Amino acid sequence: MELVSYRYHIIPILGIFSFNLLFSQYDPRFNPFDWITITETGAITSISEGYSYIYFGTEKGGVLRYHIYANEMDISLTMAQGLSSNVIQSVHFDFDTGILWIGTDTGLNYSHMREGGWTHIRKRDIGGRNLKIHQIGSTKNNLWLRSNNQYIKLDHVSGILISIMSFPDEENINWSASFSSERVMLPEPCDNYFMMDGWIYNNGYLIDPHGRDKFITVFYSSRYGDIWLGINDGVILKGDFHMETFYPIHFGLSDLNVSALLKSQDGFWIGGKSTPPQGITFYDHRQHYFKSHEFDININMSPQKIYSVLNVNNEFWFGGSMGILVYNEKKDFWR
Length: 335
What we know:
- The chain contains no helices and 33 strands.
- By secondary structure, it is mainly beta.
- It folds into 3 domains: 2-178, 7 Propeller (Methylamine Dehydrogenase, Chain H), CATH 2.130.10.10; 190-249, no CATH class; 258-334.
- The chain is globular and about 65 Å long.
- This is Two component regulator three Y domain-containing protein.
- It comes from marine metagenome.
- InterPro entries: WD40/YVTN_repeat-like_dom_sf (IPR015943).
């Protein structure tokens, strides 16, 4: 159950969640971000850079967007904006045409607006039903897809299939950063950048602040010198080349199956009832900031499904399947 909201009327009041409420066909009665979907992201699968945004393809949560000049996350692109699926295999921005291309598990999506007005191309029209888009690239004349052991050449404006070949017949293709199942080694000098918030990097191995092994799924170096790392749990690490530091960016829900929601002064508290239980999420919708309180790393939080939440004397009380969890926000303490 994804959290779905109508930004101008529902978010300030309560929020709304629904089973399969949104379909991929964009409704012209609404602006692209009148409706938004908030969900879990899964692994980062692809990274591409646009005029104003860094785009991150995700395993489950559509395309995340980081505004380069505002230095903050923005609303993500999902089925609510008209994508055919939230399962993203690759994302690519073409600087020559200004088109954003998104490969999903159902086919290829593209938009000149880069927010709404998506055109969908089915798998069978560009390479067959078993097509998996591992990487998207472009030249001044064509769009390229890398899929399994073949390369697919498309018109870079319409997406019409031109040819399928075993190796590209063009050089200097600008490829998006793609998912890697092998250990990613950071090049010098960013391998010596300081990791903020307790993260540790050592010779290709990554450990989160709670001692859990993570791995880098995507590596990208931007035109301004910043380094972007996509992690297998959906965390994004931004490497600032001026400060020579990496700091984590969290986006998305801890628990997809939303069953409890409370609007506080600072944002939303969101609990769920997935099996096994995952955790409780705080979401600041003004800053697009997420903080996850995970059951497996908080000793005072017994794992359980959450069914209700209440603000009592500046503490948040969560009713669950095994009792009540209480959180003191000022002390950052669970009991």
